[in-house]
Amino acid sequence: MLEVGTKAPAFSLPDQNGSVHTLEEYRGRKVILYFYPKDNTPGCTSQACSFGELYPQFQEKGAVVLGVSKDSVASHKKFEEKYALPFTLLSDPELSCIQAYDVWKEKKNYGKVSMGVVRTTYLIDEEGVIIKAFGNVKAAENPARMLEELKK
Fold first, then answer.
1. Rounded to an integer, what distance in angstroms lies between the CA atom of residue 43 and that of residue 30?
2. DSSP E strand boundaries for 1-152
3. Rounded to an integer, what distance in angstroms lies between the CA atom of residue 97 and that of residue 12?
4. 0.90 surpassed by pTM
5. Among 44, 48, 90, 146, which one carries the catalytic annotation?
6. Burial class of residue 91 (count of CB atoms within 10 Å of its CB; 0-12, 13-18, 19+)
7. What is the mean pLDDT of the chain?
8. pLDDT tens sequence across 76-124
9. Which of 28, 92, 111, 150 is deepest in the core (most CB within 10 A)?
10. Residue 81 CB coordination number (10 Å)
C-alpha cells in the first residue's frame, strides 16, 4: 500500500463507457479511489451499491468516486447498469494502475494462494497527494467511513 503524504501515481484508464480518465483531470477536487477484486461478486456489489447510495453526499463534499478493477469495460458497463451505479468505474486489465497503487498482492483463499486485488481505498487531495490510505477494507463499511473522512 502506498504511504500517506506521497504523490498519487498518474493513470489513464477507460471507464464503463470507454471514455478515458486521468487523475490529472480531477485536480482541484478530492478523489476517492477504491480498488476492488471483481464486478458482480457479493462484497464488491455491496461496496459499489453503498458508494452509490452515498454518492449525493460525496458530491456535496466536492469529492469524486472512482472504482477500479481489472474487469473489462463491458463487464463494468453491465455492473453499472444492473445496480444503477452513479459513479465512474475504471477498467485496468493490464494492471498498470492496480500495480502502481500497490494493491496487486498474494492472497490466500481456502488454502489456495493466488494473485489478486486487495480491497483498498485511497483518499487523494486536490493537489494529487494521498491523504488517507485504507487496506483490506470491509466492503460494506468502506463507503460510510470514507464519507466520515471527508467530513473531518
1. 25
2. 12-14, 20-22, 30-35, 63-69, 88-91, 104-109, 112-117, 120-124, 130-135
3. 8
4. yes
5. 44
6. buried
7. 96
8. 999 999 999 999 999 999 999 999 999 999 988 888 899 999 999 999 9
9. 92
10. 10
Span between the terminal Cα atoms of the chain, in Å: 22
Of 60, 43, 58, give the one whose Cα is nearest residue 118: 43
Q: Name residue, grid cell 488454502.
A: 111
Q: Across the strands, what pairs with 133?
A: 122
Q: Could you confirm whether 97 is annotated as catalytic?
A: no
Q: Are 128 and 7 in contact (CB under 8 A)?
A: yes
Q: How far is CA 6 from CA 89, 133, 137, in A?
A: 24, 11, 20
